[in-house]
C-alpha cells in the first residue's frame, strides 16, 4: 500500500480540530499544543495527499472541497478507531472488579422513555447470564455520536429527532409529542396546541440543545442538561417539545399540553451494524419483548413485525 493512501489517527485529530474550529489558534489550544507545529503538520499532510485541504487568507480558514471530504470521512474513521478501543476494553472487563466480565453501555436521552427503560432494565436483569448494563444519559441527538465513537454499545433513539443511518435497530414504541410549559403560563391551560402555536409562545422561546458542540441559532436559552431545562421551564424562561412519556419527570411547576399535529415519536433500540455481541443480542431481544404490547396488531395484519434476534452472537 502506498504511504500516500494511509492516514494516522494523530493526523486526523489535528486536521479535524482545525476543520471544526476553522482557526489554527483555537485548534491548537483545543489540542493542548503550540500553533506552529500544528500548522506544519497540516502542511505535511496536504503535501503527502497531494491536495489542498484548507484555504488560508486574512479572514481566516475555510475548507476546500477535498477538506470537506476529509472532515466527513475523518470523523467516521477516528470514531471507528476510538470505538474499537473502547468496546474492546469493555468486552475484556477493563475497569470492572476482577476485570473479566463484559459490560454494556446503553445511551438514553435524559428523561425520555423513562417507564419503558425501567421495564427493559428490570426484564433483562432477570435473564439468565445477564451482563451489567451501564445507563448513560445524553442530551438531544447525542446518542448517535455515542454509538459511533464507542462510548455506548446500544442506544434508545427517537425518530424524527435521531438519525438511524448506519445502525441496525428495532422499533419499540410510538407516541405523540407534548409541549412542556411553565404551569402558570396562560397557554398551559389550553387542551391542545399546534406546532406553529408551540413554537411561537410569547415570552417562551424554545430551548436549544447542542449538536456536536454547536447550538442552532435562535432566541431560546442554550441548554446543557435536563436539570437546567427543567429549572428554566419552571422559571418561565423557555419551553420544550418532548415525547408523551416525558410526563414521568415533570415537576409541579410544569404543565404538559399535547401538540396535535406534531409527527409521532418512534423509539428504537439501535446498535452498530457490525456488532456480534451475544450480550447485546440478549438486550435487544428483551427490549423488543417488553415493548411488544405497544405494537400488537390484529390477527392476520400483513404489517406485523417479524421475529427479532438482534445482533449476531460472536
From TrEMBL:
<keyword id="KW-0804">Transcription</keyword>
<dbReference type="GO" id="GO:0003700">
    <property type="term" value="F:DNA-binding transcription factor activity"/>
</dbReference>
<dbReference type="GO" id="GO:0003677">
    <property type="term" value="F:DNA binding"/>
</dbReference>
<dbReference type="Pfam" id="PF03466">
    <property type="entry name" value="LysR_substrate"/>
</dbReference>
<keyword id="KW-0238">DNA-binding</keyword>
<dbReference type="InterPro" id="IPR036388">
    <property type="entry name" value="WH-like_DNA-bd_sf"/>
</dbReference>
<feature type="region of interest" description="Disordered">
    <location>
        <begin position="292"/>
        <end position="314"/>
    </location>
</feature>
<keyword id="KW-0805">Transcription regulation</keyword>
<dbReference type="InterPro" id="IPR000847">
    <property type="entry name" value="LysR_HTH_N"/>
</dbReference>
<feature type="domain" description="HTH lysR-type">
    <location>
        <begin position="7"/>
        <end position="64"/>
    </location>
</feature>
<comment type="similarity">
    <text>Belongs to the LysR transcriptional regulatory family.</text>
</comment>
<dbReference type="InterPro" id="IPR036390">
    <property type="entry name" value="WH_DNA-bd_sf"/>
</dbReference>
<protein>
    <submittedName>
        <fullName>LysR family transcriptional regulator</fullName>
    </submittedName>
</protein>
<dbReference type="InterPro" id="IPR005119">
    <property type="entry name" value="LysR_subst-bd"/>
</dbReference>
<dbReference type="GO" id="GO:0032993">
    <property type="term" value="C:protein-DNA complex"/>
</dbReference>
<dbReference type="Pfam" id="PF00126">
    <property type="entry name" value="HTH_1"/>
</dbReference>
